Fold this sequence. Notes:
It is a single chain. The chain has about 325 residues and is an alpha/beta fold. The chain is about 25% helix and about 30% strand. It folds into two domains: about 1-120 and about 250-315, FAD/NAD(P)-binding domain (3-Layer(bba) Sandwich); about 120-245, FAD/NAD(P)-binding domain, CATH 3.50.50.60. The chain has helices at about 15-30, 65-75, 125-130, 140, 160-170, 185-195, 295-315, and strands at about 5-15, 35, 50, 60, 80, 85-90, 95-100, 105-115, 115-120, 135, 150-155, 175, 200, 205-215, 220-230, 235-240, 240-245, 250, 280-285. The strands form five sheets. Strands 1, 2, 5, 6, 7, 8 and 19 form a seven-stranded mixed β-sheet that branches. Strands 10-17-11-12-13 form a five-stranded parallel β-sheet, with helices on one face. A three-stranded antiparallel β-sheet has the order 14-15-16. α5 (about 160-170) runs parallel beside α6 (about 185-195). Bound molecules: NADPH dihydro-nicotinamide-adenine-dinucleotide phosphate.
Amino acid sequence: xxxxxxxxxxxxxxxxxxxxxxxxxxxxxxxxxxxxxxxxxxxxxxxxxxxxxxxxxxxxxxxxxxxxxxxxxxxxxxxxxxxxxxxxxxxxxxxxxxxxxxxxxxxxxxxxxxxxxxxxxxxxxxxxxxxxxxxxxxxxxxxxxxxxxxxxxxxxxxxxxxxxxxxxxxxxxxxxxxxxxxxxxxxxxxxxxxxxxxxxxxxxxxxxxxxxxxxxxxxxxxxxxxxxxxxxxxxxxxxxxxxxxxxxxxxxxxxxxxxxxxxxxxxxxxxxxxxxxxxxxxxxxxxxxxxxxxxxxxxxxxxxxxxxxxxxxxxx
Length: 316
Ligand code: NDP
């Protein structure tokens, strides 16, 4: 592929609520932003079904549709949205230089990193089959659908502890399946887990299969086969929903060694800001947020990045 250099005042890497919101704000501020949408245009919301907690949609909406709407809004203000990924970026000097998989070299005055995070999955075929139809990686997003029902959470860290205690407030019964005999979660979170009467920890156990029904396009989870790794015994637990909470991986490999990040790869930003350790480079959404991870908070930080990029450009 021949190489061609394109220039932009604002390069947005990654789509999803953070990236699209940054694009809307940057475009309306006349920065003529250029976005590379990434491997999964629209981000994690495109793997969910119904979204009921994003303000402004009184009847709820579908995750993929919502991301289409975000994109359309950015396009309406002439954001240059391109399919494809940025494969390399050099943030060591201005202008920043990036390379895309379409062969383009991009010269950018500011960079907004909105590459998100990827939920870790168990890797079972049945998990993929029921994803969005009873299998989820976000209790805050999907817990409501299981009000009064029985659900199962997989994991033993703070996320699993938090998700299972959150779900216990909504659901009749919550099973927390952990592969070892002690939780990794902080002592305070562990206490919450043990003090929740309708939450049962299933120790030393791994998920073998997620079981469900399938009729045409209608799919539903009915249970989970778990195996005790100490005794080798398997049993089926009847539940309507399964929440996988075994961690997320921030998609920050591309800026490793250039941007400050914590030990697991979340990009560090200044407090009350999306500024990174490099002037003119901003990070928003799940690549810098391991705490809230919501579409609405991601959109909020995307807006902050665009405003900060604009202010940076007018200050240099
Ligand atoms: P963690 O990496 O801390 O925990 C992941 C858990 O999932 C571990 O218990 C691990 O088991 C288990 N696990 C991993 N892979 C598999 C697998 N393939 N099959 C079964 N189980 C598996 O991730 P979290 O998302 O829980 O937390 C990430 C970071 O975010 C942590 O630093 C955490 O403290 C922080 N956090 C803080 C919160 C808060 O302060 N309110 C809320 C949520 C997260 P094992 O223990 O055996 O390794």
